[in-house]
Amino acid sequence: MMTKIIFMGTPAFAATVLEGLLAEGQYEILAVVTQPDRAVGRKRQIQMTPVKELALAHNLAVFQPEKISGSQEMIDIMDLGADGIVTAAFGQFLPTKLLDSVDFAVNVHASLLPKYRGGAPIHYALINGDERAGVTLMEMVKEMDAGDMIASDSVLIEETDNVGTLFEKLAIVGRDLLIKSLPDYLSGSLIPEPQDASKVSFSPNINPEEEKLDWNKSARQLFNQVRGMYPWPVAHTLWQGERFKVYEALVAEGEGAAGQVLVRNKKELIVGTGQGSLSLKTVQPAGKPKMSITDFLNGAGRDLKVGDYFDK
């Protein structure tokens, strides 16, 4: 008999996990729960979540409660008679009443728990300069990401990684970990282990203040911040008093005053930091599109010169 599952998730990471469950053929996905459609981009076009797109392609029932707790959708979901719930980057807390209505509820969380509980574990792994990032399959409880751990796996963080590339890698890790571990967990042969409370750390969603570059930090710290916020929410500094987004940068040679332009030619812009220097690669001045540093220096930034400062 097939295990009946309610799947809950929202971004591409979750869609990859759902795809794995669908491909297995031993699980019946009764319904998918995802965040409501949102307006995105400059044109504010309404866009479906990646999980919804995949669910509709497989003719699955879709629920999109603004808040699942106390909603009619939650009652409807409970009435489906699922054996369990699988979540991956869903974006909402699940009420105890819902968790208690099924035999099991597991979450595919993109960190090596108990490190980085919360909504932005991949961002923090990069920003903090971690050597590895991973995924933990855990039991769901009322407290955020605090359930017993079923299994985990990890990958090396490469110098070329950013939030986008690491999300893609960990989505595959999470998919494979779930497919490998779920049968043994459901049979009782894989026993979950409690998290070590003394090693808990958190990764709350990035707030706007954290997006701003502090040029007094080292070049390595700023490099990690830039890639830890690319492609979203994107790091920024100030140029001519306006927001100047930095999408990509590299640690460079040379020392100089923090925030000061040290090298400026037609193809290169190097800025001093608290330790070392940073070469800006992809940027976006206020009111302009995202562009290469070459296009910026030969256009909007043609008046920028050595000795000028960012963030002043």
UniProtKB/TrEMBL annotation:
<dbReference type="Pfam" id="PF02911">
    <property type="entry name" value="Formyl_trans_C"/>
</dbReference>
<keyword id="KW-0648">Protein biosynthesis</keyword>
<dbReference type="InterPro" id="IPR005793">
    <property type="entry name" value="Formyl_trans_C"/>
</dbReference>
<keyword id="KW-0808">Transferase</keyword>
<feature type="binding site">
    <location>
        <begin position="111"/>
        <end position="114"/>
    </location>
    <ligand>
        <name>(6S)-5,6,7,8-tetrahydrofolate</name>
    </ligand>
</feature>
<feature type="domain" description="Formyl transferase N-terminal">
    <location>
        <begin position="4"/>
        <end position="180"/>
    </location>
</feature>
<dbReference type="InterPro" id="IPR037022">
    <property type="entry name" value="Formyl_trans_C_sf"/>
</dbReference>
<dbReference type="InterPro" id="IPR041711">
    <property type="entry name" value="Met-tRNA-FMT_N"/>
</dbReference>
<dbReference type="Pfam" id="PF00551">
    <property type="entry name" value="Formyl_trans_N"/>
</dbReference>
<dbReference type="InterPro" id="IPR005794">
    <property type="entry name" value="Fmt"/>
</dbReference>
<dbReference type="InterPro" id="IPR036477">
    <property type="entry name" value="Formyl_transf_N_sf"/>
</dbReference>
<feature type="domain" description="Formyl transferase C-terminal">
    <location>
        <begin position="205"/>
        <end position="300"/>
    </location>
</feature>
<comment type="similarity">
    <text>Belongs to the Fmt family.</text>
</comment>
<protein>
    <recommendedName>
        <fullName>Methionyl-tRNA formyltransferase</fullName>
        <ecNumber>2.1.2.9</ecNumber>
    </recommendedName>
</protein>
<dbReference type="InterPro" id="IPR002376">
    <property type="entry name" value="Formyl_transf_N"/>
</dbReference>
<dbReference type="InterPro" id="IPR011034">
    <property type="entry name" value="Formyl_transferase-like_C_sf"/>
</dbReference>
<dbReference type="InterPro" id="IPR001555">
    <property type="entry name" value="GART_AS"/>
</dbReference>
<comment type="function">
    <text>Attaches a formyl group to the free amino group of methionyl-tRNA(fMet). The formyl group appears to play a dual role in the initiator identity of N-formylmethionyl-tRNA by promoting its recognition by IF2 and preventing the misappropriation of this tRNA by the elongation apparatus.</text>
</comment>
<dbReference type="GO" id="GO:0004479">
    <property type="term" value="F:methionyl-tRNA formyltransferase activity"/>
</dbReference>
<dbReference type="InterPro" id="IPR044135">
    <property type="entry name" value="Met-tRNA-FMT_C"/>
</dbReference>
<dbReference type="GO" id="GO:0005829">
    <property type="term" value="C:cytosol"/>
</dbReference>
